[in-house]
Amino acid sequence: MSNCTNFSLRSILWEIRVIILFYVIGDWLSTAYALPNGQEGNILLSPLISTSGIYGLLLLKLLFVALLVFNLYILNNCKHEIAPYLKEGLKSSVATLGIVLTINNILVGLYNWSFLGSMVAALSV
Q: What is the count of structural domains for the chain?
Protein backbone atom coordinates (compact mmCIF):
# COMPACT_ATOMS: atom_id res chain seq x y z
CA MET A 1 0.00 0.00 0.00
CA SER A 2 1.35 3.44 -0.85
CA ASN A 3 1.87 6.29 1.60
CA CYS A 4 -1.05 8.10 0.02
CA THR A 5 -3.74 5.61 1.10
CA ASN A 6 -2.89 4.66 4.67
CA PHE A 7 -6.28 5.68 6.09
CA SER A 8 -8.47 2.70 6.88
CA LEU A 9 -12.21 2.55 7.18
CA ARG A 10 -11.77 1.86 10.88
CA SER A 11 -9.74 5.03 11.40
CA ILE A 12 -12.28 7.13 9.50
CA LEU A 13 -15.15 5.66 11.53
CA TRP A 14 -13.21 6.48 14.70
CA GLU A 15 -12.80 10.07 13.45
CA ILE A 16 -16.54 10.45 12.95
CA ARG A 17 -17.64 8.74 16.18
CA VAL A 18 -19.29 11.96 17.44
CA ILE A 19 -21.22 12.23 14.16
CA ILE A 20 -22.36 8.63 14.47
CA LEU A 21 -23.35 9.17 18.10
CA PHE A 22 -25.32 12.40 17.65
CA TYR A 23 -26.27 12.78 13.97
CA VAL A 24 -27.19 9.15 13.38
CA ILE A 25 -28.08 7.49 16.70
CA GLY A 26 -29.04 10.54 18.78
CA ASP A 27 -31.14 12.25 16.13
CA TRP A 28 -32.77 8.99 15.05
CA LEU A 29 -33.72 7.88 18.58
CA SER A 30 -34.82 11.37 19.63
CA THR A 31 -36.91 11.68 16.44
CA ALA A 32 -38.61 8.39 17.28
CA TYR A 33 -39.20 9.73 20.81
CA ALA A 34 -40.56 13.11 19.66
CA LEU A 35 -42.76 12.01 16.74
CA PRO A 36 -45.77 11.07 18.91
CA ASN A 37 -45.79 14.65 20.28
CA GLY A 38 -45.48 16.41 16.96
CA GLN A 39 -44.59 15.98 13.33
CA GLU A 40 -41.36 15.96 11.37
CA GLY A 41 -40.44 19.59 10.76
CA ASN A 42 -38.20 18.94 7.77
CA ILE A 43 -40.39 19.11 4.66
CA LEU A 44 -37.97 16.86 2.77
CA LEU A 45 -37.96 14.11 5.42
CA SER A 46 -41.64 14.24 6.31
CA PRO A 47 -42.81 12.24 3.25
CA LEU A 48 -40.04 9.67 3.81
CA ILE A 49 -41.06 9.13 7.43
CA SER A 50 -44.74 9.00 6.43
CA THR A 51 -44.13 6.25 3.87
CA SER A 52 -41.12 4.32 5.21
CA GLY A 53 -41.41 5.05 8.91
CA ILE A 54 -38.60 5.77 11.28
CA TYR A 55 -36.47 3.00 9.72
CA GLY A 56 -36.49 4.86 6.40
CA LEU A 57 -34.90 7.79 8.22
CA LEU A 58 -32.27 5.47 9.70
CA LEU A 59 -31.46 4.10 6.26
CA LEU A 60 -31.11 7.63 4.89
CA LYS A 61 -28.77 8.56 7.75
CA LEU A 62 -26.65 5.47 7.12
CA LEU A 63 -26.42 6.33 3.43
CA PHE A 64 -25.32 9.83 4.43
CA VAL A 65 -22.61 8.35 6.68
CA ALA A 66 -21.39 6.19 3.77
CA LEU A 67 -21.15 9.31 1.60
CA LEU A 68 -19.38 11.14 4.43
CA VAL A 69 -16.86 8.30 4.84
CA PHE A 70 -16.19 8.38 1.09
CA ASN A 71 -15.61 12.16 1.20
CA LEU A 72 -13.32 11.89 4.22
CA TYR A 73 -11.33 9.16 2.50
CA ILE A 74 -10.84 11.46 -0.48
CA LEU A 75 -9.90 14.41 1.75
CA ASN A 76 -7.45 12.23 3.73
CA ASN A 77 -5.67 11.36 0.49
CA CYS A 78 -5.76 14.85 -0.97
CA LYS A 79 -2.48 16.76 -1.02
CA HIS A 80 -4.07 20.20 -1.35
CA GLU A 81 -3.26 22.61 1.49
CA ILE A 82 -6.92 23.33 2.21
CA ALA A 83 -7.97 19.65 2.52
CA PRO A 84 -7.40 19.38 6.31
CA TYR A 85 -9.55 22.47 6.87
CA LEU A 86 -12.33 21.09 4.66
CA LYS A 87 -12.19 17.78 6.52
CA GLU A 88 -12.38 19.36 9.97
CA GLY A 89 -15.09 21.78 8.85
CA LEU A 90 -17.18 18.95 7.45
CA LYS A 91 -16.84 16.85 10.61
CA SER A 92 -17.52 19.79 12.93
CA SER A 93 -20.58 21.05 11.06
CA VAL A 94 -22.27 17.62 10.84
CA ALA A 95 -21.50 16.86 14.50
CA THR A 96 -22.88 20.26 15.57
CA LEU A 97 -25.99 19.69 13.46
CA GLY A 98 -26.48 16.29 15.13
CA ILE A 99 -26.18 17.78 18.62
CA VAL A 100 -28.63 20.60 17.82
CA LEU A 101 -31.16 18.23 16.22
CA THR A 102 -30.94 15.78 19.12
CA ILE A 103 -31.49 18.51 21.71
CA ASN A 104 -34.39 19.96 19.69
CA ASN A 105 -36.06 16.56 19.39
CA ILE A 106 -35.70 15.92 23.12
CA LEU A 107 -37.33 19.29 23.81
CA VAL A 108 -40.19 18.39 21.47
CA GLY A 109 -40.60 15.04 23.21
CA LEU A 110 -40.51 16.48 26.73
CA TYR A 111 -42.18 19.87 26.39
CA ASN A 112 -43.85 19.77 22.96
CA TRP A 113 -41.75 22.83 22.00
CA SER A 114 -39.17 23.18 19.24
CA PHE A 115 -36.58 25.94 19.34
CA LEU A 116 -35.84 25.30 15.65
CA GLY A 117 -39.54 25.63 14.86
CA SER A 118 -39.66 28.84 16.91
CA MET A 119 -36.69 30.24 14.99
CA VAL A 120 -38.29 29.43 11.64
CA ALA A 121 -41.58 31.00 12.76
CA ALA A 122 -39.78 34.15 13.94
CA LEU A 123 -37.87 34.45 10.67
CA SER A 124 -40.97 33.98 8.52
CA VAL A 125 -42.83 36.88 10.14
A: 1
